[in-house]
Write a structure and sequence with these properties.
The structure is a single chain. The chain is an alpha/beta fold and 302 residues long. It has two domains: 150 residues, Rossmann fold, CATH 3.40.50; 119 residues, Beta Barrel (Elongation Factor Tu (Ef-tu), domain 3). The chain is built from ten helices and 14 strands. The strands form three sheets. Strands 1-4-3-2-5-6 form a six-stranded parallel sheet. Strand 11 and strand 12 form a beta hairpin. It is elongated.
Length: 302
């Protein structure tokens, strides 16, 4: 897979999925699976060559926090068999393009689109004047085919990045997993902490997440942990937040106690998958009270 800038690429005969793709969920996967399927299709009357390439065109909006960091998106795209990811910052130049100029100069001129795959609410061009009907209107003139997906619904709710953000703010990580098709995860290198947990029988591995990574509601969670490239998955109890009982720092931490595991992981890369919300973050009156609650938390996971 190659990562390219939209204004520095020249492709031909592609299947292009258009969107933000900031929080990659099941709705996005419909588009991704479609373009990878089209890129593997060797017979089509509308395609001049058999060598159709799959392209994700991402429109990157400025965000204070993101559901998926860039490296997380790239790993997922590559695992799906995507050929190119075309990055497009939403700057003044792109925002002022007319819908037809976007189609003519970028979609066809730069990306060489033979297929254009979008969600039904996709908007583009100056003041989002372009939409699905605009894409269809110019499809014959510029020789591409439009594939449109309706919004994906789960339990009468639309699957979207904004909905995932709201669920994370409520700690509803089970539903987030349903929307995304995989558990919500936070990854990072294990850093050295105060080692207080070890003194009460609950040693933790601590990661300081990327400041742009969206974290779920502060509290305790049942988690599953992957260490490096180890295929084995370990059960864990993870606290998200500032750990107010023993820590007065402002930076949010992700602290995980691994069940049936007692090895030194300092400096190693881990991925914490959130399975279930256990309880909100609490400031306990004493370390003993904290220990008793952790025993209850652990029993709920085992």
């Amino acid at each position: 897979m190659k990562i390219v800038a939209y204004d520095n690429v020249k492709l031909n005969n592609t299947a292009v999925a258009l969107g933000k793709f900031e929080g990659v969920h099941k709705g996005h996967m419909l588009l991704i699976n479609k373009i990878t399927g089209l890129s593997n299709n060797k017979k089509s009357d509308n395609i001049k060559s058999d060598d159709v390439k799959s392209v994700i065109f991402t429109i990157n909006m400025p965000e204070d926090s993101v559901i998926n960091l860039d490296n997380e998106r790239y790993e997922l795209f590559e695992s799906c068999g995507i050929d190119y990811v075309c990055e497009c910052p939403f700057d003044e130049r792109i925002s002022k393009l007319s819908p037809e100029d976007f189609i003519k100069n970028i979609l066809v001129g730069r990306l060489g689109a033979s297929y254009v795959v979008v969600g039904e609410d996709f908007g583009f061009g100056y003041r989002r004047a372009g939409n699905v009907e605009t894409l269809k209107k110019y499809s014959k003139e510029y020789n591409y085919e439009v594939v449109v997906f309706e919004k994906l619904m789960i339990e009468d709710s639309i699957v979207s990045s904004s909905a995932i953000r709201e669920l994370l703010d409520k700690g509803e990580v089970k539903l987030v997993a349903d929307y995304m098709g995989r558990p919500y995860s936070v990854a990072g290198d294990v850093s050295e902490g105060k080692k207080l947990g070890r003194t009460i029988g609950f040693p933790t591995v601590n990661i300081i997440p990327d400041k742009k990574k969206k974290l779920p509601l502060p509290g305790a969670y049942e988690t599953r942990v992957k260490i490096g490239k180890d295929s084995k998955v370990y059960k864990g109890i993870t606290n998200v937040g500032n750990n107010p009982t023993v820590n007065s720092g402002a930076d949010a931490l992700v602290e995980t106690h691994l069940l049936d595991f007692d090895e030194d992981l300092y400096g190693k890369h881990i991925q914490v998958d959130f399975i279930r919300f256990i309880r909100p973050e609490i400031k306990f009156k004493s370390i003993e009270e904290l220990k008793n609650q952790l025993l209850i938390d652990k029993a709920s996971v085992v």
